[in-house]
Design brief:
Distance between the termini: 43 Å
Shape: globular
Number of strands: 11
Oligomer: single chain
Radius of gyration: 20 Å
Helix content: 25-40%
């Protein structure tokens, strides 16, 4: 049975306390109608008034009262007069509120500002020192051409209109179907997956539309992403294995990833769809990918290549504490190139682990959020560094070429 990973409430620009009364009623109605809901979340619009710090304390208190697990704060550093304040505020929010995620809009409208990416990397480094194990960067993401109303944190922002989005958990269901139908062809498997999931999605959407009408709140849509979860059959890797992939990232992986993404996006032909709706290779959130990485490392080059076909980009990558700022920016530029060339939203979450140094093997030691985060070996970003210091703002001139 399909579970709901999150119901994310997208707050309006002029949100007030009455909004939360409606959210509370919606939460009760959802729990009564559908018990398999992992989290509820709040998604703010891009913040304009950076000096209104008190509002985050208010949102944190309301979230605690309503049982809302996390809230997401999107920040736009592209206003040259506010750039410094954006990064100061981001650090303050992550330090003070453990329910808060922060989304930094790193690449915007296909434009790259290397000073913003450099400040983002410095923020990642600074946030890693808020705790003992580097876990705090779980709540910080840098986006490339992000989209609105995505229910998956942190690469999202509210459109400014009160609505809610739903992230589904499809991984366990698809794993189960593939185990049951091992000898079917690709065409047959696709038909089986779509038929099985479609019926369940119909029921969830019917509830969503009824509650939307009852409480006069727009249902923004589903994110159909195939996202890992730390539970039995919650990894994406066995799905690839059922499709014939025996070595992650090597030839065949792109086809298998697109095969799955194509199925996920097909649901958008009938249902309202938002966000990524793709396969998510989130390293620290996938037990089997962690195991593969422990044995012979998951190569960043493979993950970058997979981002051309999959969902969120380079997500939850643990790195050494002595990783240079330039190396992190280099990885951001790599992802920006893919995002701009393919016109697709992508994001990056890097977790520098304190007191770890390149040349030695280290493993993460997370435990406090075990339902979403596992442990694995640290990843080296490599030696290449684009000479971005010689440029500031940059934009590709060609667009799409045939």
């Amino acid at each position: 049975m399909i579970k709901i990973r999150s119901i994310t409430y997208n707050l309006p620009l002029d949100w007030n306390l009455s909004i939360f009364n409606t959210i509370q009623k919606l939460n009760v109605s959802w729990r009564n109608a559908y018990p398999h809901i992992r989290t509820t979340r709040l998604n703010l619009p891009v913040q304009q008034q950076l000096n209104n710090v008190k509002q985050y304390e208010e949102i944190a208190n309301i979230s605690s009262k309503l049982g809302i697990r996390w809230f997401n704060v999107p920040l736009d550093p592209w206003n040259e007069y506010e750039t410094g304040n954006v990064f100061t505020l981001a650090h303050h929010i992550l330090k003070e509120y453990d329910r808060a995620f922060v989304h930094i809009i790193g690449v915007k409208n296909k434009k790259i500002d290397c000073s913003i990416l450099s400040r983002s990397a410095k923020l990642i480094e600074k946030v890693s020192k808020l705790g003992n194990n580097g876990h705090e960067n779980f709540r910080l993401g840098i986006s490339c051409n992000g989209v609105e109303n995505t229910p998956f944190f942190p690469f999202t922002m509210s459109s400014g209109v009160f609505s809610y989005s739903i992230a589904l958990e499809l991984t366990q269901e698809i794993n189960g179907l593939l185990q049951k139908h091992r000898n079917k062809s690709l065409n047959e498997l696709r038909d089986i997956i779509i038929a099985s999931l479609e019926q369940q999605i119909d029921g969830i959407e019917q509830t969503a539309m009824e509650l939307s009408k009852k409480y006069d709140v727009n249902f923004a849509g589903f994110d159909f992403s195939l996202a890992p979860i730390i539970e039995k059959d919650g990894s994406v890797w066995p799905i690839l294995q059922h499709l014939g992939i025996q070595e992650f990232g090597t030839c065949g992986s792109l086809f298998a990833t697109y095969y799955l993404t194509d199925i996920l996006k097909s649901f958008g032909q009938k249902h309202k769809m938002v966000g990524f709706s793709g396969v998510m290779y989130s390293l620290l959130e996938d037990l089997e990918l962690c195991r593969i990485n422990n044995m012979h490392s998951v190569k960043l080059e493979h993950l970058v290549a997979m981002s051309t076909m999959c969902g969120c980009g380079l997500d939850m990558i643990p790195i050494y504490s002595d990783t240079a700022i330039e190396e992190m920016v280099n990885l951001m530029l790599e992802l920006a190139a893919v995002s701009n060339r393919l016109d697709k939203p992508l994001g990056i979450r890097l977790l520098p682990i304190p007191n770890t140094y390149k040349g030695k093997i280290y493993y993460t030691r997370f435990s406090e959020d075990a339902d979403f985060v596992a442990n694995t070996r640290l990843v080296d970003l490599g030696k290449n560094v684009i000479e971005y210091g010689k440029i500031n703002q940059f934009e590709f001139i060609g667009g799409r070429h045939v």
